[in-house]
Write a structure and sequence with these properties.
2 copies of one chain form a homodimer.
Chain A lengths: L5 H17 L5 H7 L5 H13 L3 E3 L7 E3 L9 E10 L20 E5 L10 E5 L14 E6 L8 E6 L4 E10 L2 E5 L8 E3 L4 E11 L4
Parallel strand pairs in A: 3-5
Antiparallel strand pairs in A: 1-2, 3-4, 5-6, 6-11, 7-8, 7-11, 8-9, 9-10
Helix pairs in contact in A: 1-3, 2-3
The first copy, chain A, binds a DNA duplex through helix 3.
Chain lengths: 212, 212
DNA sequence: TGTGGCGGCGAACATTCGTTCGACGAGGCT
DNA sequence: AGCCTCGTCGAACGAATGTTCGCCGCCACA
């Protein structure tokens, strides 16, 4: 007996939409009204069935303690990543000096945790320009970076160029006593500088292309 | 008086973590215990303050009717996009013939609504191969498609090639009485075929690169 | 020194809510 | 017919929960 009765499916559907709308689960009597059921005990009865079948989990001794199980109901773990600004071959960007993002008016990007590899303190930047287009990072993309102070060869990092006073996203190569910052765009030349002049700000994690 | 007292900040923080963990809001007494407050009325008092300051919204006559306001607390609208399989220059994929995704065991990808342009019935495919790499779609990427039966020149579409019995992601060009399916990879040749032989399955919306 | 607002306290109260109980009808089975 | 299960119903009980009320200490301020 794995099938859901019509009423059980109704309740499950109501559960979803109620939670979606209100952000908290319905009470038994909410379900009763919402599904046009005449008695609370019927709701309770079917809720138990639903629980037996593994569709929901109920928290007894807690009102509204209903949780939808399964991929469909599980709330994906979302992180709001602060979108700190833009990065290019140009404009300097503000970089967090602490882990406090107290300013709630900051723009954020909401993504699933897996997009930022479950790392903490990740921040996002909007890419301006096409210097990394061959690494599949295009103008307008949003990149996620984790704070980092160092890089190994080949890492894509946001680096602060002290002499220019600007931050740029490039592939990092340590070559003897100099540093090569390699764009992933064959029409652009690498930047050569000294280790003293560069300060790694963050390491590339992933990117999204929010607009087509 | 816009500042939050220490206790109010505590409560707000507790609210966040409680909801994050349990998926439903705490009761007054949950807050009382969780924040080490000695009376429910103190909780009520500060909850009112919080409401005055616009941090939360309370649903009176509903237990646990607390909702966190603002970007930090607002639940981002998430859609679970069914990940139907892979697409490449090769394997056929199952394509939905109806709008029912009844099979809950299907793998899904959770993304924010803006990733799919708030469209309905979007589905996702994992890209195999590098035929679209110059369009910044690489091997392993996940692409989001909307169901479509037609395409205009230049659209990136998933097309069903009847004679080959396979589905592939290409740029679509109608040229006279033939159709050119153009890979975005200069090492690959376009596919020429007839309009009768191609059946557009979906139009490219956006892509993510879940792993580095 | 008195006054009033603020934040807190504990207890009682009123409502909401989950659960239980007895009963009923429709079917299936012996 | 007798007996069982399933799904339903209405009512009531009791636990969980939100709200109110009087009282208190602190502190700024007149």
């Amino acid at each position: 007996m794995k099938e859901l009765s019509g009423k059980q499916a109704d309740i499950l559907e109501f559960l979803r939409s109620f939670i979606e709308e209100k952000d908290y689960p319905p009470s038994i009597r909410d379900i009763q009204e919402g599904c046009g059921i005449s008695s609370t005990s019927v709701v309770d009865y079917n809720l138990r069935k639903l629980e037996e079948k593994g569709c929901i989990r109920r928290d007894r001794e807690v009102s509204r303690g209903i949780e939808i199980l399964g991929a469909r109901g599980r709330r994906p773990r979302i992180v709001e990543v602060p979108l700190l600004g833009s990065i290019a071959a140009g404009q300097p960007i503000p970089v967090p000096t602490s882990d406090r993002w107290a300013n709630d008016s900051d723009e954020t990007v909401a993504v699933t945790e897996e997009m930022v590899r479950h790392k903490a303190n990740v921040f996002a930047l909007r890419v301006k320009g096409t210097s990394m287009v061959e690494d599949l990072i295009d103008d307008g993309d949003i990149v996620f970076l984790e704070p980092a102070q160092s890089a190994v060869n080949g890492d894509r990092v946001a680096v602060w160029l002290k002499d220019r006073g600007e931050v740029t996203l490039k592939r990092f190569f340590h070559e003897g006593d100099r540093v090569r910052l390699q764009p992933a765009n064959s029409t652009m030349d690498p930047i050569y500088t000294t280790p003293e002049n560069v300060e790694v700000q963050g390491r590339f994690i992933s990117s999204i292309r929010p607009s087509d």
